[in-house]
Amino acid sequence: MKKIAIFGNRHQEGYFPLLQRFFKSLSERDFEVSVCARFYEYLLKNGVDVPDGMPPEENLPASVECVISIGGDGTFLKAAQWVSDREIPILGINTGHLGFLASYSLEEMDELMDVVAYDKGKIERRSVLEVECSALPEEFWPYALNEVAVLRGETASMVTVHAEVDGYFLADYMADGLVVATPTGSTAYNLSAGGPILMPTLECAVLSPIAPHSLTMRPLVVDRDSEIRLTTSSRVEYSRVSLDGRYFMMACDKDELRIRRAKFSVMALRRPDASFARLLRNKLLWGKR
What we know:
This protein is α+β, with helices and mostly antiparallel strands.
């Protein structure tokens, strides 16, 4: 894969010398490179010289074979939105915090370039959730790689989330909200809400209530093809719907949110020896005392 696109966040303080070397190395290896326009402008503003022949692009070029995301997991999620439904492999370089989705650091640039150039990596197909709702704004991207979360609105009072699975009533979750997570997102908001950790390549979803007002409300794993329908009621007019941190408002006692598996996947390009067990040990200190 020699035709690549670079997507990055604008919080790279401390990494500018490594980014300079990274772009120089890409040029020396004869990669055909384009750079997300806003990241391109950020680099130039901070003294990182992007070599000639690496044009800034607002939209992902049609010929791109691989996308490299530079940042944390949030940047990877935005790169997935940039790729959309094209199922182009995304390789993550972590310059953020935990970095569950990013396999490499900038210090490993020679190794990661070999992975891209010689097709040595492991591609993991990650499930994506799709939402439908009459309150969805017109330009809103209706997909989530990590989770869809229904949250209380601007109030300290709890929200009641009425949930149906495949047309059958499941429960009225009286809580601060409800997270519907993919296996990839099981280590994100779902984990903070007390939900289970899932192998990221599984094909299922998990419903995890946030601070529920009952001990009988527990996380539930459902089949990948399940359709989840949610409505809300609260003391305020609106509740918040978050897709990987992007949100819109839906009307309580009126709007219905429908969640199902999307028809496309996100292709995560991992290091050849990628291991979820190793990731848990390194990132979450699994089993440490």
